[in-house]
Every structure is written in C-alpha cells, then in structure tokens.
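Anyone up for a design puzzle?
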C-alpha cells in the first residue's frame, strides 16, 4: 500500500466473455491423424489363405490351394491381386460350408453353381468344386504337393493341374493371355506339357496360348513343329 493507504496493485480490466487478443488466433484444432498406410494386399490374401487352409486341415477336408496363391507357393510372384482359391470335392461342399460357419465365417452361395464364397481378413476366398468346367476329383487332390504357404504347410495343386485349370478356362468370351503368361513362365519347368496338350490343346484358345508359349521359347514345340 502507498503512504496514503491506496493499493499499489495494478488496475485489472474487467473480464469480457469471449475476448481474445488478436495475436492469440483461433482456438487450436487437433492435428489431423496421419493417413493410413496402404494395406499390403498380397500379405492380406496370404493371411486369408493360411487361416482357411489351417481350418480345412483341422476339419479333415480334402482340398488343395489353387489360383494365384498356389502359383506363389510354387515359386511364382508374390504380387497377388485377387483372392484366395481352394479346390474341394463337390460332395464335400456342404460339410466344408458347415466348418467355415462353425469357425465364425459367413458363407455365401453365388449364382454360379460351382463354388462357395467367404471372406477372411477382409479378403475374398473362393471354395471351388469345379475347375475349368470339370469337377474337382480325388485324383487331382492326390496329385497336390504339400508346400509351405508363408510358413503354413498345405496341399497345393500340382503345376500341371494348375496350368490346365487356367488355360482350359480360355474362351471367346475370356481370353486373357497376359495374366497367365507370367504363371507359365514361373512354373514351366514343373509342368508336364504333354499332359496339358493332350487334355486341352485341341481347343482353339488353349491351343493358341500354347503356340504363343512356343513362339516365346517358354516351352519346346511339339515334335514335327519348328
């Protein structure tokens, strides 16, 4: 206090609700969360294949891994773009569907009458009992190779059956040679090309693809051809 009794504390301005100094700026906003990194789609497909394969093994269902993941298991590219495919016997379809449901997976029946569909790790999984318009057979599953699929052992379609299933599907309405050519290159030394020619080489589109493989020196031409 001063000698005359007045307070020496500085005079305070009355509070005004909502008053801010200009330098304060607007209320700070929370920092935006960084965008999620792109999902490794190939690894997600592999994880789905591993889980479904392990489930089918535990349930005792005969099966073989097919499609692009089977190509990967045989030494092909790890770049997977679509889904995981499993071949099963037609008579086992209902039992396999029951096992998937018991594991908590939804099973869908599409309009096509040769497969079932489910989803695992956010990826589509096709349970197929007909390959290239032919029923999956016990002999086909017996020819499967037991291979590690990203550390999980499971039966995988043999390379000859794998190639047959891919090129036998060629038709005038679907003839994507570009997607199958890298597969043929990757497994060419493991395929019995005589069997492939004997079983599907008379059809126009598979024959054209085999001719392309010969011209590109992926496979040897048949005897009598140059």
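Challenge accepted. My sequence:
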């Amino acid at each position: 206090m001063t000698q005359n009794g007045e307070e020496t504390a500085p005079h305070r301005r009355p509070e005004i609700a909502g008053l801010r100094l200009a330098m304060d700026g607007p209320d700070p906003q929370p920092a935006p969360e960084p965008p999620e990194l792109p999902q490794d789609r190939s690894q997600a497909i592999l994880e789905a294949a591993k889980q479904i394969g392990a489930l089918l093994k535990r349930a005792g269902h005969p099966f073989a891994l097919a499609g692009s993941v089977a190509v990967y298991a045989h030494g092909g590219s790890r770049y997977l773009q679509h889904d995981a495919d499993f071949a099963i016997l037609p008579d086992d379809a209902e039992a396999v569907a029951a096992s998937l449901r018991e594991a908590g997976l939804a099973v869908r029946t599409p309009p096509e009458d040769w497969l079932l569909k489910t989803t695992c790790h956010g990826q589509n999984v096709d349970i197929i009992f007909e390959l290239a318009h032919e029923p999956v057979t016990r002999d086909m599953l017996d020819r499967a190779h037991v291979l590690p699929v990203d550390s999980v052992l499971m039966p995988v379609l043999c390379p000859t059956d794998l190639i047959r299933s891919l090129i036998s599907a060629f038709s005038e309405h679907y003839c994507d040679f570009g997607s199958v050519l890298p597969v043929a290159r990757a497994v060419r030394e493991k395929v019995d090309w005589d069997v492939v020619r004997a079983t599907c080489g008379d059809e126009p589109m598979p024959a054209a693809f085999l001719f392309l493989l010969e011209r590109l020196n992926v496979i040897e031409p048949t005897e009598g051809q140059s």
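A detail worth pointing out: Residues 159-226 form one domain.
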